[in-house]
Amino acid sequence: MNLTTNFNESLLAAPTISAALPLIIADKGTFPIALTSLVTALVALLTYYLRPPGVHPKSPAFTSDTSPIIGSFGYISRQLTWYKKSVKESTSGHFSFRLGRRHVIGLSGVAARKWFFEEPLLDLVSGAVILPFGVHFWPPIHDIFKPDGNRARNNTFFLRRMLEMMKTDKLEKQLFRCIGDARECFETILADSPTGVINLPELWKPILRQNCRLFVSSDIADDPKQFKKVSDCVDTLLHTYSVFNVFFKWLPSPAYWRRRLARYGLVRFFRQMYNQRLSMTPEEASRKNDPFQSLINNGDSEPYINEFFTSAAFITTTNAHVISSQMLENMAIHQEWQQKCFEELQTVANKYAGGMDVALVDKIPHIPLKAWETSFPTMHMCLNELIRSWSSFGVMRYNTSPNAIPIPGSDEVLPGHTFAIYHTGEPQFSAKLYPEPSKFDPTRFLEGREEFKQEPYGFFGWGGGTHPCTGMRWAKLQQYIMLANALALWKLSSCDKDGNLDPYAKERQRGLDVDLDSETPFKLPPALCRFEPREQVQ
Length: 538
Prior knowledge:
The structure is a single chain. β6 and β7 form a beta hairpin. The chain has 2 domains: 47 residues, no CATH class; 392 residues, CATH 1.10.630.10. α1 crosses α14, α14 crosses α17 and α17 packs across α21. The radius of gyration is 25 Å and the shape is globular. By secondary structure, it is an alpha+beta fold. GO terms for molecular function: heme binding; iron ion binding; monooxygenase activity; oxidoreductase activity, acting on paired donors, with incorporation or reduction of molecular oxygen.
């Protein structure tokens, strides 16, 4: 049963009062009281929102783009344009705005950027509740995401467990299977497409399958029924948006409930999995040599284990499924870079399986982990250039301290227990740091160029400061594996829905095909690609 659909059809159906209305009207004593109560409640609600709480006197001035009750809708509807306008009209480059009653500080400039990414009191997970593409962490934040006094980088339970799962021996153990997942995806990609045309954003399930192997269990990846249960829930979390609740956190929307029910579906699934593992004999449990069993063997508590895997299934797939589809799209549009990546793959594959009289795709499993991580500089440049664009959005933090923190380079402060936002499009689409910033130009990352190094955090594609990308090692490897299998089997071309080649794709791409003002930055537009079989290249 589809839990989300059932919920929408039953609990979210609009209530009908037509049958009860005559009784309400007939009861002349009850109706005025009810009406008065309703009006009083509405007036109280309007007063509550029209008179938001005061702010610290040294907070930056409020942006002019502010409406009663809602606050700054531009934060959702035209994020980069709104951000630039608010920065421009501010004397310091910083500004205040509201999301409903929440007070948020917008930051800009090199000094504030460096402080934003390095200040240990600014928390990423707590700031995620104002993300416009849907809440995943609901207050209170679970203890697995809270610092516990350990070393600076891996100072939470979640980070430590993630890093453990990306150790070399763990990656080598799953490498062959993850390559097989990618190959299966691209070998069967045209099964339901007689025209040979694929909408690339739909290719996210192989990413989830690989992530299940590395961060949860191959039991899920290899069992169609289990994988469907997990993928249905993750699908909802990836593609259902709750922008309404950015402004009104207390008034759940249908999207909000769909997301919460999907998350509950994961919680229930992993709870059942945990109980099944506990019921196993020691001999049976010893054969379950996977991350799930590893946490049980560590003695981690059931709430920690459940929260870890529920979050990991979603978090590891969120960015990866976006980047993978857009990487293929850019190869389809920029044929010269597709050819360079293809030739690079040939060179590496032939080095490790050159004596084998087999197709290129059959040589890929023979590439060792070290070569995957060091022998694909062209793919690496293309990946960084793509991420430069797709990581250009508002990044959030939350001041976990009750005290105001001075904003460097100004006499203003970030008040205690207040959100802050910095738009990474400021450096990553700067003509100074990236000449012709809307152009797809991987050579920006060649040694000797790298203009972005003129400023701290000029490139933020892999995080930085107090919050570097914990999963970077696997994230790169995963993208190389997916791209390698696609290019070994197919020649990619941008096209229309009928498979006709699109000669104007480059001109229409407008900055790597990313609308930086999009209200749903992770809701991908259609990216149609024609897959044509390659000649069997040795």
